[in-house]
Q: What sequence folds into this?
C-alpha cells in the first residue's frame, strides 16, 4: 500500500523544523491549506508539489514516489526544481572562502571579508524568510569578528 503524501509532507516539514505557518509562507498558501495537505483532505497540484520538493531539497518525483499521489498528475511534474535558495548558495560559498582564508596571511583577507560583507548586506535587503535572515545575520557577525581579530588566523 502506498504512503499517504500528506503524512510524508508533515514528516518532512517536521524534520526541516518548520511550522505549518512557515511552510505556508514559503509556498505562498495559507496555513489551513498546509493543514489540509498534511491531513490528506486535499491533493496538491503540480506547482505545489514542485515548491514542496524545493523546500525539502528533493526532486518532485522523489517527493511523490511511493505515495498516493495520482500517477496522471505525477507525469506532469517537472523533472528538477531549484533545491537551494540564493542565500543558501551564497552562504556555502562564504564557508568555502572562510576555509581558504585560514591558510593565507591575514593582510590578504580584508578585501575578501569586505566583499562578503557587501554581498551579505545586499542579500539581507531582499530576503524575507526569517530563517534565512537569521543565517545572514550570523554570517555577518562571523565576518565582523574576523575583521576585528585578524591576527588570530
A:
Amino acid at each position: 500500500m502506498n504512503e499517504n503524501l500528506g503524512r510524508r509532507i508533515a514528516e518532512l516539514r517536521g524534520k526541516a523544523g518548520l511550522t505549518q505557518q512557515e511552510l505556508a509562507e514559503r509556498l505562498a498558501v495559507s496555513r489551513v491549506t498546509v493543514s489540509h495537505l498534511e491531513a490528506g483532505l486535499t491533493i496538491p497540484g503540480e506547482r505545489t508539489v514542485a515548491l514542496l520538493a524545493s523546500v525539502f531539497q528533493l526532486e518532485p518525483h522523489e517527493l511523490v514516489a511511493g505515495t498516493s499521489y495520482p500517477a496522471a498528475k505525477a507525469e506532469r511534474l517537472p523533472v528538477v526544481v531549484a533545491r537551494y535558495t540564493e542565500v543558501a548558495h551564497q552562504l556555502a560559498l562564504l564557508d568555502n572562502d572562510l576555509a581558504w582564508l585560514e591558510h593565507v596571511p591575514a593582510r590578504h583577507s580584508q578585501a575578501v571579508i569586505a566583499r562578503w560583507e557587501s554581498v551579505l548586506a545586499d542579500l539581507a535587503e531582499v530576503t524575507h524568510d526569517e530563517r534565512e535572515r537569521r543565517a545572514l545575520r550570523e554570517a555577518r557577525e562571523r565576518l565582523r569578528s574576523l575583521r576585528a581579530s585578524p591576527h588570530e588566523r
Summary: The mean pLDDT is 93. Residues 106-126 form the longest helix (21 residues). The chain has nine helices and no strands.
